[in-house]
ATP-grasp domain-containing protein (Anaerobacillus alkalidiazotrophicus), 388 residues
Amino acid sequence: MNIFYDNKKQEWQSLVKKPLNFGKNLLPLNYENKPSGSCFHVKTINNKVGPLIGILASRANGKEFYGNRSTFIKIQDQLQKHGGISFVMTPERIDEVSVEGYFVHEGKWQKGLFPLPDIFYNRIATYHEEKSSEMRKVQEIANKNRIPIYNPHFFEKWETYKHLIENNVIKYHLPETDIFTDRKQLKSWLEDHQSLFIKPVLSNQGNGISVISKIEDKYIIKTNKWCKSFKNFDDAFAKVSENLRKRKAIIQRKVHLKEYEGNPYDFRILVQRVKDKWFMSGIGVRCAKKGGVTTHVPQGGRIIPLVEVNQEINTDLISKIAIATAHQLERSYGYLCEFSIDLGIDTNNQHWIFEVNAKPMKFDEPDIEMKALNTLIKCFYNDSGFEL
């Protein structure tokens, strides 16, 4: 069936006389025999229409919100195809019974007033905003009304490592890692491993990551932007400290990855859940630029077709690692819907988890992106009580 949003009256309307409710807090629809405004296709179950999905996005100066608008539009298009509505909101636009958000109508973003959604889909872009008082209010309202929040928070690298190392399957696929403390620790680790990653615990997309190596009587520090050599450890340590800018970080043994055309590559594994079943939705391949420290595309890495390295992949083992990671993360963090894993294979065919990402980036591989979107939509319907 169809429902309508009258922007002038800021009310939701229906052509049906019988009582119909909308949203998690069951907002009654107003009967109107000649409704006006934006029309939406929805499903019905037990006199409730929906589902209604609230996409949490970051605030932006001079714009309605910050985020991947093309993805948000695709979510709305898929929901409308089956019957359902999504809107984009920023955390400060919510109160106990309603949300001010944005929806697409006739190719333009328009403002609307919505009831509380059946599900929050968290795409907040920064750690700082996720820790804000406005976001805490969203979480309180969600808890009070038993509204699921997909991607409830970013994964902090050190905390996530401590959770994963407890798992008897995963622990064999984690390179040695520790919280970065002082010069004595770093010097000792360099003596043992010769080459280490240093990663801020709250970084993403490869930002802030460096590699420090001891090569004969020199210390080499590399980032994706520069490389410097030091004759003594004290100078090298000073540069590490300067680069971190007092940020909390981990140190991690550098794994010697397999290479493609002379450059290391690794994998982005997308893991999603429908009902109680976790599975891999796709495997993407990312290759570092020449001399690059990481394979992240924003840091100069590139996408290569999976078929180019397909003979190197043990899909069954990767799936086993991915599913074990999903169950361990749920035990540690509670309800989840999706995440991605940065996984590499070394020259001895050992498989290593480097990072786990709470909010997967858009995949540039069209087949993976479409499967990811369809799976997400299935999850929306299942967890909101509607049938796809």
In short: Helices lie at 69-82, 127-130, 133-145, 157-164, 183-193, 233-244, 315-333, 366-384. Residues 315-333 form the longest helix (19 residues). The chain has three domains: 2-153, 157-174+256-383, 177-253. The CA atoms of residues 288 and 301 lie 4 Å apart.
